[in-house]
Amino acid sequence: MRQEIAMEHLFTYLRWRGDLSFSQAPFCPVDNLIFCCLSYLNWGELASGLMPEQAISLKEAAQDWLSLPEELQKVRVPQDITLLQSAANSVRFGTIRLFRYVESFQEQQEQQFSATAFLLNANTAYIAFRGTDNTLVGWKEDFNMSFQSEVPSQTAAAAYLQDFLQIPIPHLLVGGHSKGGNLAVFASVKAPPILQSRIQAVYNNDGPGFCSDILHSEAYLHLQSRVHTVVPEASIVGMLLEHDEDYRVVASTQRGFLQHDPYSWCVDGPDWYYLPETSHGSQRLDRSLKLWIASMRPEERERMVDTIFHILRSDTNAETVQDLLDGGRSTVTNVLRTWGDTPTETRVFMQKMILRLLMAMRQSEPKTSNLPAIPFQKPRSWK
Q1: For the segment 87-135, what is each residue's pLDDT rounded down to a tens digit?
Q2: Three-class SS of residue 119?
Q3: Going along the chain, which residue ranges are E strands?
Q4: How many CB atoms lie within 10 A of CB 148?
Q5: Distance from the Cα of residue 319 to its chain's centroid
Q6: How far apart are CA 80 and CA 73, in angstroms?
Q7: Which of 58, 56, 67 minimizes the C-alpha distance to 87?
Q8: Please, what sign has the CA dihedral across residues 353, 355, 361, 364?
Q9: How many CA atoms lie within 13 A of 118 on its CB side?
Q10: Among 100, 194, 325, 358, which has the minimal tally of Cβ within 10 Å of its Cβ?
């Protein structure tokens, strides 16, 4: 089955539908992910206009962005540049206008946040929250979600969306990939009722869940039918913490954790190529992590996360995941040295946490899936 769908992806979609404007072909789930990927780019001053009349077209922004020095572009993955070029040169995305780009990186507050608004037309905007970048601060903020009811990026996302109370755009679409999906749901739930009524849909693309009671709030229940969640077959990130919404499973050309890569997701015309359910491995990991997290008090989760990132950063001086990988053998040596210097009490604590994880995995033998029944869909013909 993987060989049959391996060629259909975001770039296939752009070649197929790129010559049709949004007035000719309506917004679809694949468009949503394209906007999420474009939000990973560092737009800086190019898209910092606060109001729609100050927005810049994607075609013009792309030309200016591509002329920037490489150190200012801060490219996440090479595919982001390819997507930018393809989208900017298309009829469908070239005239889309960008505004209200913000970025906040606060090491002390452990915050990595960014958002971009895309104006489809005078009546519709897509608000994209960026997912986790490759900084260790960004990854630590994700882990902090396991014990904090509200992390700094969630607070920033709610404030960013609330600013649209003052912008007369009647139809809002909100979304994000990875952590950005979590932020999209959080911000939409926290939006005042008058603003929430303008939200047509919320797209959570393999984003983690929540550890707070937000899923039981009246605001969430009112919004729930508008939340669209998709996860890849071997989802890990999208299974973390608590979810209460239905979700669908998209096929990917990658395996394991690499399926989190949005460029690996398989499309079927204007929609995803759906699978009946997540893999047995993903389901077992989901059960294991939930059991493991539930076995820890919030203060234990916090202590464990702080210890892990202290060990990763103390002697390595790494700022990003890539720094750790580039360090190679020296990274391993420095991590082991820091671990050896860690107080005995902390090492014993970490060993207990690892033992709990192993026990949770042992309790999570494969069981009958309790996922919502989703009929298997063969690919439709592309029209």
Answers
A1: 999 999 999 999 999 999 888 888 889 999 999 999 999 999 999 887 8
A2: strand
A3: 56-57, 97-106, 111-121, 124-129, 171-177, 199-205, 227-232, 247-250, 267-268, 271-272, 274-275
A4: 18
A5: 20
A6: 11
A7: 58
A8: negative
A9: 31
A10: 194
